[in-house]
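Input/output pair, single chain:
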Amino acid sequence: MSLPVAIGHATIPDGSSGTTVIRPLQPAVCAHWVPGSAPGSREWATLSPDHLAGRIHALVLSGGSAHGLAAADGVMTGLVALATDAPLPHGACRVVAKMAAAALARTLRPAFTPFDGDVVFCLATGDASGVDPATLLRLGDTAADLLAHAIVGLFPASTP
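Output:
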């Protein structure tokens, strides 16, 4: 099954920066978890449940230079994004993002240092009606496992 999102990526030829855009075909619920102490952030306050935004139209993951941050004018920047079609409301998205962050600690050493920009986002394209606690636990645990395997695939010296 495919998720209703479009994904695009570009890298500066010298590899100094890159940008990935994730655009839900319909506005999606999004929450984030920031275990790192030095994230480069843009517009994160809008993801707070007490703000009116409620849903996002795009998420930009970028880094490596000021060029990367400029790519995110009007949208979000970060490190990791997970997407699901589960009907997660904002709080449940944040739980999944928080649980998935465990994959960073499992596979990257050191993790969550004062110099890291570690950020995990969770996007949910479902109707936000909610899931039971057991399903939420399975979603978060699966997200952490999948993210750990993805990191090991990108950096073979890593181990979960």
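The first strand starts at residue 5 and ends at 11. DSSP finds four helices and six strands in the chain.
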